[in-house]
Amino acid sequence: MKLPLYLRILLVLTLIGCGWLFWQDQPEPLDSAPAPVTTKAAPSEPAAPTPTAEPAETIVDLFPIQTWTPPPPPPPVDNAPRRPPALPFKVSAQWRYENQAKIVVLSGNGAQYTLCNRCSVPGRIVPGKMLDAHYRLDKLTDTAVVLTYMPLKHVSTLRLDKH
Hints:
Keywords: Membrane, Transmembrane, Transmembrane helix
Number of strands: 7
Oligomer: single chain
Protein name: Secretion system X translation initiation factor
Distance between the termini: 123 Å
Helix content: 10-25%
């Protein structure tokens, strides 16, 4: 089969055009990219804030990995009120002189505390005074010692009838 001359010339021109387009479509290497040109503003004008440099090309994932499993639930929030530590004191001794108020000795936190309402014992602790840095003696009765944990204002009762 013999093609006419005008079709052969048109075919050659089409091949040359396709080769030229293919050659023009090749990306340029990054080393030969032109450097950005910056100009300085005139000193009479106030300086404008400079925008942050962003990369020219950002990669966008059009098809991210997806799953049908639901996300884990958020951790539960503890709305319960804070609880004070366990009462660190125990009754070491208790006694009463004839017709006088009861005297109680508590031990805890590496020390001993002498509690009384009205007595002349040296180093005594009366209601309203602090046992240590965190506990205050509120009330001393024949059957109980009432202490307040000061950081949380929590009242605790230590029963004396069991001891």
